[in-house]
Amino acid sequence: MTMYQQHFGLTAEPFSIAPDPHFLYHSERHQEALAHLVQGLQGSGGFILLTGEVGTGKTTVSRALLEQLPESTEIAFILNPMLNEDELLATLCDEWGIRYQKGRATRKVLTDKISQFLLDAHQQDRQCVVLIDEAQHLKPQVLEQLRLLTNLETTKNKLLRVILIGQPELQTLLKRQELRQLAQRITARYHLLPLTNYDTERYIAYRCQMAGANRALFTQPAAMTAHKLTGGVPRLLNLLCDRALLVAYADGQMQVDKAHVKRASQELGQFDEPQQRAQTASRWPWLLLPIAAVIIAALMRWWSVPEIQVEEPISNYDYQNAQLLATAWQLPQPPRQQAFCDWVKNYQLACLKTNAVSVSQLQQINYPALLLRDAQTGIVLKSMEPVDTQGWTGEVIGLYQRPDIRYQDGATESEALTQWVKEQLARYLSDTQQRLNAQAQLQAIQRQAGLPITGELNQVTLAWLSARYFESGPRLQEVN
């Protein structure tokens, strides 16, 4: 037991970076991720996909999944994805206790032994699951070998389920042409995003409670400062909060305050940059006045939002989705021979297309949206109630009302849009936040709104600002 554990009355380290399911805080996003994995295992598909940035809790979610699996599950857990095809087959045999002659077993021999194991397990009502962490490092040939193993099936179910867990690069890998057959077999997928500011406060309190705390060890300003410095990434929160407890202990204090968190961030070093950027942003007009015109021009280009165009002409699959969206927005029948995103401009609307938001974030925007499914039309998000996301690919298409921008004399569309966005941000940001640079302002509003924190004026953020600006237009509760 560490000295600060005794000082705060703790029985364990509350912010260990080890993926202990006992400390898993079930935020809305983590609950959704775990539900997608469980639902995928109950379905009839072969592959389940969980992605997320470094430190967002993917491995912890996977450990929680393992604890929920019945004892009848035969699980093969692969932590080292840097394997070739033969090494993969041998590793699966080792994980499942399949005996073979090392050094003599050919790929066919290993494949046959695994196939027989899967058949025997099925006859005994045992489910076989392969879970691969850091799957973005898998070679395409190894992924193809996994697909071939999942070919073994009954009339209703696959005999092998594969859970791929990795960073966002895994999604890019699976879009390769030679892996298109595997991509078509992914029946459940989820992209795990960082915690919102609301969940960060509860995450910190929960982990302290699970470690034995019987009172709040962090003040609310301290928790919000930790969220701001880490962006809500659990792994970074653990590092920062652990050091903050040590700083408070060294000061002889029984609660961590905002100053302790800031001092902890300075000691760790890696959290200093956002604060330095903010300080620099508040001073730049005086320090860089001679080149202000150049900076403003660069900001104008940076704030611009590119339009996402639907391929022309619209395919049958895209046209069905266009019809669903048009109906939700009470628009007439869209034309087949015109790009949908061009056509909706006639109604002062713009397209939103993304694969980086959750259902709850879409509900924050509060416009009708379409959750795309594999090989079929999408699911219309109709209300603030839970929605069946079975088969959802993670991709979303939607519409939002175009900003009501007013042109000053000689202003371009980009300059007018920039001015409109600044005016909208001013409605929600404090005077101090408004002195930050453009990226920091956008990060601040994205945190407040519970949107993906990118620091960019993307379409998700623009749609949220639009929904707050306009009082007309359909809302989720109005869509039938």
Throw out a few tags for this protein.
480 residues, alpha/beta, five-stranded parallel β-sheet, flat
What's this, in brief?
It comes from Idiomarina baltica OS145. The chain has helices spanning 3-8, 28-42, 58-68, 85-96, 107-123, 140-149, 169-173, 180-183, 197-210, 220-230, 234-250, 258-268, 272-287, 292-303, 316-328, 340-343, 359-365, 413-426, 431-434, 438-449, 459-469; strands at 47-52, 73-78, 127-132, 160-166, 186-192, 349-354, 369-373, 376-381, 392-401. It has 480 residues and is of the alpha/beta class.
Structural features, described:
The chain is of the alpha/beta class and 480 residues long. The chain has helices at 3-8, 28-42, 58-68, 85-96, 107-123, 140-149, 169-173, 180-183, 197-210, 220-230, 234-250, 258-268, 272-287, 292-303, 316-328, 340-343, 359-365, 413-426, 431-434, 438-449, 459-469, and strands at 47-52, 73-78, 127-132, 160-166, 186-192, 349-354, 369-373, 376-381, 392-401. The radius of gyration is 25 Å and the shape is flat. This is General secretion pathway protein, ATPase. It comes from Idiomarina baltica OS145. InterPro entries: AAA+_ATPase, AAA_22, ExeA_AAA_ATPase_DNA-bind, P-loop_NTPase.
Side by side, the strands of the main sheet go 2-3-4-1-5
Q: How widely separated are the two ends?
A: 58 Å
The major beta sheet can be summarized as: 5 strands, parallel
Helical fraction: 40-55%
Number of strands: 9
User: Could you give the order of the helices and strands?
Assistant: HHEHEHHEHEHHEHHHHHHHHEHEEEHHHH
Strand content: 5-15%
Derived from helix and strand composition plus strand pairing, the structural class reads alpha/beta
Using only CA atoms, what is the Rg? 25 Å
Mean pLDDT: 79
Morphology: flat
Q: What's the total helix number?
A: 21
Protein name: General secretion pathway protein, ATPase
InterPro entries: AAA+_ATPase (IPR003593), AAA_22 (IPR049945), ExeA_AAA_ATPase_DNA-bind (IPR052026), P-loop_NTPase (IPR027417)
Organism: Idiomarina baltica OS145
Domain AAA+ ATPase: 44-199
